[in-house]
Write a structure and sequence with these properties.
Layout lengths: L3 E4 L5 E5 L4 H10 L6 E6 L2 E6 L3 E6 L2 E6 L5 E4 L4 H9 L7 E6 L11 E7 L2 E6 L2 E5 L3 H9 L17 H16 L5 E10 L5 H11 L4 E7 L2 E7 L2 E5 L4 E4 L2 E6 L4 H13 L1 H21 L6 E11 L2 E11 L18 E2 L1 H11 L9 E6 L4 E5 L3 E5 L2 E10 L5 H12 L11
Antiparallel strand pairs: 1-2, 2-11, 3-4, 3-13, 4-10, 5-6, 5-9, 6-7, 8-9, 8-21, 10-11, 12-20, 12-24, 13-14, 14-23, 15-16, 15-22, 16-19, 17-19, 18-19, 21-22, 23-24
């Protein structure tokens, strides 16, 4: 592969003419060890590697930690809304910043605990699209060398058995269905954790899994020792610099990838199943209600309703809702928890989740790219692998409504886990 290096008019940015596949480019950058903490974030037609730490914000229950280049670190108490705490922390960031990181599911809990968010402003940012790599910050020559390297970037996978823990999960589903019939809530997402029985090569797993998936967004990160790789089926929210908000709720699931005839049959089932249609319709209604709370209500509308989205080993019913931020609202306000990962009504569903499950952390939270100009892009964290302190795990859930059956919902978690379980690469 040949790479030409030139400097644009802006001295801080270099453009590399790059023939490498973006996935391989991201894996080589992540695996180089040159950048310390990093985030890889894929959007349609564009990949970003954010490496090294020029600035950092870590939000914990009651305390926000911030450090900016050239300034002493700070730790300040906060109360009220976590979104306001993040907004205020980034108000002190140096001009022209872009930030990348993750938001925990517990960000939306009424009494949040633990780490709620971790975002970095990178020292080096590499954006790959259209056969070019745009490098901002130091290290352009070394980036060019990495992108010129040939050879494989992933090892052989060792599939993880997803059919474990069925009895315990089915019991939790039955409990949730009973609570729905008792009128405590309409819908709740009940998830299960699947521990991987060996240490994992997270970067290689990301490569293998991305080759087999068709996500709305994908991500790979290593922040503060927590590693994650995932193929998000759903955009949680995007906000452009003009304040226009878009969210894409997914709800309703069937298996995909078993062949044309089988996929067509399960698609017909999905489109005609009353339980799946109801689950999706109430999710869209809730998304519209949330948009109206942060947007000018007159601008809120559905622009794409109940179409089938193919996402790796599963297919979903999906819709798109849009609106424009109301005066006084910020992009951080668009980071409400995904209705397809919590439930309806959300407060009661989130309370149920905290009783039925252990702490979720990143799972069903968000990976976020946000900019000084008000633009934000966030992916719902599903179909992901997590690794910390030498232990790795997967997690998947299903939307439980009154018509749910424990056996079918367990099968749905197996279908979702199969987006990543066959592609897990052991650490050599």
């Amino acid at each position: 592969m040949s790479i030409g290096l030139r400097t644009d008019a802006e001295p801080a940015e270099h453009v590399l003419e790059c023939a490498a596949e973006p996935l391989a480019a991201m894996a080589r950058l992540a695996g180089s060890g040159l950048f310390g903490d990093y985030v890889v974030y894929e959007r349609p037609g564009s990949w970003t590697f954010a490496g090294g730490v020029l600035g950092e914000v870590v939000l914990e229950a009651g305390t926000v930690h911030a450090r900016w280049h050239g300034l002493p670190p700070s730790a300040r108490p906060w109360s009220g809304r976590p979104a306001d705490a993040l907004r205020d922390a980034f108000a002190e960031a140096p001009p022209g910043w872009n930030a990348y990181g993750w938001i925990a599911f517990e960000f939306a809990a009424p009494h949040p605990a633990g780490r709620l968010a971790h975002l970095i402003v990178p020292r080096t940012e590499v954006r790959v699209s259209g056969g070019r790599a745009h490098v901002t910050g130091p290290g352009a020559e070394r980036v060019a060398d990495l992108l010129a390297e040939a050879g494989p970037v992933a090892g052989a996978p060792s599939p993880v058995d997803v059919r474990v823990g069925g009895d315990a999960y089915r019991a939790k589903v039955a409990e949730a269905v009973a609570e729905i019939h008792a009128g405590r809530y309409q819908k709740v997402i009940v998830s299960r954790r699947l521990d991987v029985p060996h240490p994992v090569d997270v970067i290689a797993t990301y490569v293998r899994g991305r080759e087999a998936n068709t996500p709305a967004r994908s991500f790979l990160l290593d922040l503060g020792g927590l590693q994650a790789a995932g193929y998000s089926p759903e955009v949680l929210a995007t906000v452009d610099a003009g304040g226009r908000v878009m969210t894409q709720p997914l709800a309703g699931t069937r298996a995909f990838g078993a062949g044309a005839d089988a996929d067509a049959r399960t698609r017909r089932e999905l489109e005609n199943d009353p339980k799946e249609i109801f689950e999706h319709a109430v999710s869209v209604r809730t998304s519209l209600e949330e948009l109206r709370r942060v947007c000018d209500p007159a601008t809120v509308q559905v622009t794409d309703f109940m179409t089938v989205k193919e996402r790796g080993s599963v297919q979903h019913l999906g819709s798109r809702a849009v609106g424009t931020l109301a005066p006084g609202r910020s992009p951080w306000d668009a980071l409400f928890p995904g209705v397809t990962a919590s439930g309806i009504p959300k407060p009661a569903a989130i309370e149920a989740i905290t009783r039925l499950e252990d702490r979720r952390g990143m799972y069903s939270g968000a990976v976020v790219a946000v900019s000084h100009d008000g633009a934000l892009d966030s992916a719902l964290v599903l179909r992901a692998l997590y690794s910390e302190n030498g232990r790795a795990w997967l997690r998947a859930g299903a939307g439980i409504v009154g018509a749910s059956t424990p056996g079918r919902e367990y099968e749905e978690t197996c279908e979702k886990l199969s987006s990543i379980a066959p592609h897990v690469v052991p650490l050599a």
